[in-house]
Amino acid sequence: TKVLGYADLIQGSAVWECEMTARRFNCGNGPVKLTPEERAKITEASKDWILLAQFGTLTAGDTELMWGDCGCLYFFIRKKDLAKKSFENIWMVLQCG
Q1: What per-residue confidence (pLDDT) applies to 73?
Q2: For a surface tag, which of 21, 22, 28, 66 has the fewest beta carbons within 10 Å of its beta carbon?
Q3: Average pLDDT along the chain
Q4: Which DSSP string do the residues of 8-39 spell out, in sequence order?
């Protein structure tokens, strides 16, 4: 569990998924076909996303919250939105092993 910094990713780039979803691509139906130009734009725009918070398995006494199979919830925000304290466009990504 952390706030800001670098994500401890389990399944690869989550910022790519944030940018794809922000652009209204459906990432849940397998690989998305992109032109080389689209891929380049998304790759560049992905650099604007940073980790806001990460939550792994949470345990308190006899209670445990586990995301998938020992996974993590990641919350990402664009740098400009964080600077403005604008939290309307946060994306959550779940990754598990």
Answers
A1: 86
A2: 28
A3: 85
A4: --SSS-HHHHHHHHHTT--TTSSPPP--HHHH
Largest distance between two CA atoms of the chain:
51
Tokens read off for 81? 């939105």
Query: Crossing angle, helix 14-22 and helix 36-46, to 10 degrees?
Result: 110
pLDDT at 82 exceeding the cut of 90:
yes
What residues have CB less than 8 Å from 80, skipping those under 6 apart?
48
Strands 72-78 and 49-55, sheet pairing: antiparallel
Does residue 24 carry a pLDDT above 90?
A: no
Q: How far apart are CA 88 and CA 77, in angstroms?
A: 9
Kindly calculate the radius of gyration of the chain based on its CA atoms and give it in whole angstroms. 15
- The confidence score (pLDDT) of residue 64 equals 75
Question: What is the model's pLDDT at position 60?
Answer: 80
Residue that has been written with the tokens 């389990």 in this structure: 10
